[in-house]
Amino acid sequence: MTESLYPRSSADCIRPVVCGGGVLPRKKSVVKEEYERILQEAIQRLDKISQNRSAPKNIRKATTDAMEILRSEDISYGMRSSKAIAILNEIMNDINMPFPIRSEILLIVGLLEKIRD
């Protein structure tokens, strides 16, 4: 007996082309894992800034606030990232911010902008 060209179920799908161009059923979990990875990287970078004693106190406070928001699991990924971006954008034009910290915050904002709802 010949084997069918079509998968018996969506769990049999290996590639979208084989499955008629459909999306793999595990896509949401892959996206969730990617968002978690991005959030963890952003939290680590923010933690470094918040522990840096050469950073002004208001900048350390803002990074701590952004970390708390990113860690709260009762809010969706998109809301967490947009709230954290808003906090970080408020301190971006601070005159007292050292250039390496400003560059790091810009990098963190770039990471968080990848997260969508």
UniProtKB/TrEMBL annotation:
HAMAP family membership: UPF0147
One Pfam match: UPF0147
Domain of life of the organism encoding this protein: Archaea
Record-stated family: Belongs to the UPF0147 family.
Name of the protein described by the UniProt record: UPF0147 protein D6D85_13230
